[in-house]
Specification:
The protein has eight helices and twelve strands. It is an alpha+beta fold. It folds into three domains: about 160 residues, Beta-Lactamase, CATH 3.30.450; about 80 residues; about 150 residues, Heat Shock Protein 90. α6 packs parallel to α7 and α7 runs antiparallel to α8. It is rod-shaped and about 155 Å long. It catalyses: ATP + protein L-histidine = ADP + protein N-phospho-L-histidine. GO terms for molecular function: ATP binding; phosphorelay sensor kinase activity. This is histidine kinase. It holds the Pfam family HisKA.
Amino acid sequence: MSIRRYLTLILISVITLVTFASAIQGYRSSMLKAATVFDDELYALALVLSATVSTVQPALSFDETAFTYQVWQDEQLLLSSNARLTSPIAAFQQGFSESNFLAQRWRTYSLWLTEQQRWLIVAQPLNRRFELAESVILAAVTPLILSIGVLAVLTFWIISAGLKPLNLLSEALQEKKADDLRPLPAVPQAAELVPVVDTLNQLFERLDGAFMREKRFAADAAHELRTPLSVLKINAHNLALELKHDSQAQCNMDFLQQGIERMSHVVEQILLLNHTNPEQYRGNFVSLDLNALCQTVIASIYPQIAQKQQEIELLGGTEAIVGDEFALGILLQNLISNASKYTPAAGLIRVTLATQQNTPVVRIEDSGPGMEPAEYERVFERFYRIGGDRHASNVAGCGLGLAIAKHIAQLHKAQLQLSHSADLGGLAVDILFAARGNTHV
């Protein structure tokens, strides 16, 4: 629930509760006031009647449903305003009381007339008191109840205006791209948000510094690691030439060169893994032709394919997406290179471009041994290889290729799905890009 809706509901609930509490208290106060007023009226009526009653009906005219009276002497009814009332309507005891007759509740007052030695009893219906109290409280509370709707609208508008600086800050954060670590502008008329903006700007500054240090580290590591490995390669090659007539030494040199090659490959993959991390990579997203990109990647690794006398097919027409050309090139190169590595000599590799439900898809299949479905998720873990270094294919690797591919797929909001290739019998890798119109730019 939003803060604006929460505050509006809380304030309107409080206003409503206070209004009804006030109405209840007002009803009680009105009832007490009405009781006092009507008791005074009943007492005054008794005094008036005491001065006018005789053995005949008094010359006072009033509505019998509003008041009624009786005159008794020695427990004998002398006068009654209602012929149906033949028994005492109240006890012969001075003061106020309540009684039931004529199918309703009455408030009564008994007055002893000393000179005449008679009892005068007057009565008034209690429902008139309730009606008066209800009319008074409704007249007072009805405008306030009707104004709750207006108060709700005004409260919502005032809270919305008060939260406008927070909305501006939220919009500024939403408009920031992943690589935009510039400081946020100050939010006007919001002293409470100044510490928040300052803290966020400090965080952005630290993140930017961390990214720059990471970038410099990658560049320095690439320089510091590649240079000695290159020198080691050259020296190993020269040494192999010098020892080419010694079969045992040549065998050892072959192992040494393979180790150097593997070390170089691991270094390159680690640096590439770090470089393509979605949290750090700042891509240059442009419109790309997948068909042309696939052709370029296939051409770059074709010597590896030709060396194993393999065939590769590129099927499908032009498929346009928005993405980073360098990163997508690495993604396709890793997947096609893997297909070539694990496909036997003279095997077939197929790259298919298609569109499924407005979603561009690249499918890479091979005629290699494939893998068990239980391994489909684990192969994306860093440094994980099926069978470890004793992989049945005897292909050298470090278990980072698919981890890098997953990073790049996440960068483009794409999905990687592994399955069995029904046509070629090996592994099928599907790259499902974001639907057109939803691609991150």
